[in-house]
Amino acid sequence: MSFDLVVWAMDRTDAPDSVRAANARCVRGEHPQRSADPRVVAFYDALTADYPDRGPRAAAPGSPWASAPLHAAADHITMRLDEGCPDVVLETIERLAAELQLDLLDLQDGTVYPPPVRAR
Q1: What is the distance, to the nearest Å, from the Cα of residue 29 to the centroid of all Cα atoms in its chain?
Q2: Hey, what's the torsion of the CAs at 7, 78, 15, 95, to 10 degrees?
Q3: Bridge partners of 5?
Q4: What gap in Å lies between CA 114 and CA 98, rounded to an integer?
Q5: CA trace torsion 48, 100, 106, 56 (10° rounding)
Q6: Which residues 6+ apart lie within 8 Å of 18 measured at CB?
Q7: What is the pLDDT of residues 72-87, one digit of tens each?
Q8: Are residues 100 and 90 in contact, defined by beta-carbon separation less than 8 angstroms?
Q9: Averaged pLDDT, 95-101
Q10: Do the beta carbons of residue 72 and residue 80 sit within 8 Å?
Q11: pTM of this structure
């Protein structure tokens, strides 16, 4: 079993329905033809530096990915996580999304939320 999360580079004034609509377009194969949002690039680079989605480490025991490579588009990254994914991976995803002002979409229940900003 796996679970899916998607980080989206949306305008901070967009409603959760806008995120869900953008995801529905992605599922249909409709992706914007534009340069990648720098926030999405930074998220992908930081996340995959610790948890590679390509090469031998992507399929090694302990990898958080149920499916790799990750789906990366100009405005979002879709992550299919293994059900045994350690909490630290989820915490990393939330932290990076918060730092980069990305919305998170939980595909299991359709919840859209900005990740919490944690005090350090």
Answers
A1: 17
A2: -20
A3: 79, 106
A4: 7
A5: 0
A6: 10
A7: 999 999 999 999 999 9
A8: no
A9: 93
A10: no
A11: 0.86
